[in-house]
Amino acid sequence: MDDKPLAGNIVAIMVANGFEETEMTEPQRALLKAGATLKTISVEQRLVNGWHGKGWGHYFPVDKQISDVLGADFNMLLLPGGERSTTKLLQNPHTTRIVGHFLDAGKPIAAMDHGVELLAIARKLKGRMLTGAPAIRAKLEAAGAVWQEDQTMVVDGPLLTAQGLDALPGFVEQMLKGFAESITVKKAA
């Protein structure tokens, strides 16, 4: 079995100040272990500040400004939660452009909690099944998504969504599986 199934693939991690730190760092560790190249893209310059528990967390380096990248630059997209981060990203037109590219191209996206709301701005969710932070349900349904009641994690093709830190271990496992499957499908095509 390949111990680096994601080698040669570039994953964009889209965040702004106030992202849920654990929702980024747990998937980040797993992706690195699987051989993926990670690029943190943000509206922030140089450093982005996580939110951990009830206060500010660590700073993380920003690899690229969101305005300077294309969705085509990446194979996969990770959208950690964090209400503050999501609010900032929702205000940036480049977020819509990048998320829209991933949805149009059928590339894998893994989104958690409030980060799932970023999918709604691309206006491409009609009939998509998903879950996320309960507070964003109405916005997602208004965008055409089908909310999966009582599901903490939902897979809909290349789209993985989850809610709550309790779902994080399963989310990370499914994210790796889904990302690796997308690579296998791409190689077979």
Helix fraction?
Answer: 25-40%
Helix and strand sequence: EEHEEEEEHHEHEHEEEH
Q: Count of DSSP helices?
A: 6
pLDDT < 50 runs, ≥5 residues: none
Adjacency order of strands in the biggest sheet:
6-3-1-7-8-12-11
Largest sheet: 7 strands, mixed
Arithmetic mean pLDDT? 94
Distance between the termini: 21 Å
Q: Shape from CA axes?
A: globular
Proportion of beta-strand residues? 25-35%
Give the helix/strand class.
alpha/beta
Give Rg in angstroms: 15 Å
How many β-strand stretches?
12
Descriptive keywords:
189 residues; alpha/beta; seven-stranded mixed β-sheet; three-stranded mixed β-sheet
Can you give a write-up of this model?
- The protein has 189 residues and is an alpha/beta fold.
- The chain has six helices and twelve strands.
- The strands form three sheets. The protein has a seven-stranded mixed β-sheet with strand order 6-3-1-7-8-12-11, with helices on both faces.
- Helix 1 crosses helix 6 (168-188).
- The longest helix has 21 residues, at 168-188.
Short structural summary:
This protein is α/β, with parallel strands linked by helices and 189 residues long. Helices cover 34% and strands 26% of the residues. The chain is built from six helices and twelve strands.
